[in-house]
Specification:
By secondary structure, the chain is mainly beta. It has one domain: UDP N-Acetylglucosamine Acyltransferase, domain 1 (3 Solenoid). The chain has one helix and 16 strands. It has a six-stranded parallel β-sheet, with no helix packed on it. Strands 1-4-7-10-13 form a five-stranded parallel β-sheet, with no helix packed on it. It has a three-stranded parallel β-sheet with strand order 9-12-15, with no helix packed on it. The chain is elongated and about 60 Å long.
Length: 132
């Protein structure tokens, strides 16, 4: 925990969770390997493993992320501030949230997987080839 952090009652923080300048409401859970900075987390929020609040655009001003009561945030997701995740919303695993998510809505943003048969072998051969 870093400066400016307040935790409500029965909050659970997993291993390797960093919380900075944020409030976390009662009974909320932030699983391991997550960074929550400059955020307001409501009550009964579940944040999965590997969640990151992206709160800076490179300048000195930090943007805020708000996650309202009862929201569920899947693993390996990011919230690009400023953004609000509404009460009871659901963020699918692997999603990058760049727009507000209304209460009770589901947000999902993933690129389609493309599998290229035999490409790993070609790539490995290029990596190990002698340099001119």
């Amino acid at each position: 925990m870093r400066p400016g952090t307040t935790l409500g009652d029965e909050v659970r923080l997993g291993n390797y969770v960093e919380v900075k300048n944020s409030s976390v409401g009662d009974r909320s859970k932030i699983s391991h390997l997550s960074y929550v900075g400059d955020a307001e987390i409501g009550r009964d929020v579940n944040i999965g493993c590997g969640f990151v609040t992206c709160n800076s655009d490179g300048g000195p001003v930090k943007r805020r992320t708000v996650i309202e009561d009862g929201a569920f945030v899947g693993s390996a997701s990011q919230a690009v501030a400023p953004v609000r995740l509404g009460a009871g919303c659901f963020v699918a695993t692997g999603t990058t949230v760049t727009e507000d998510v209304p209460a009770g809505a589901m947000a999902i943003s993933r690129g389609r997987q493309t599998t290229k048969a035999g490409y790993a072998r070609k790539y490995a051969a290029r990596r190990t080839a002698p340099k001119p």
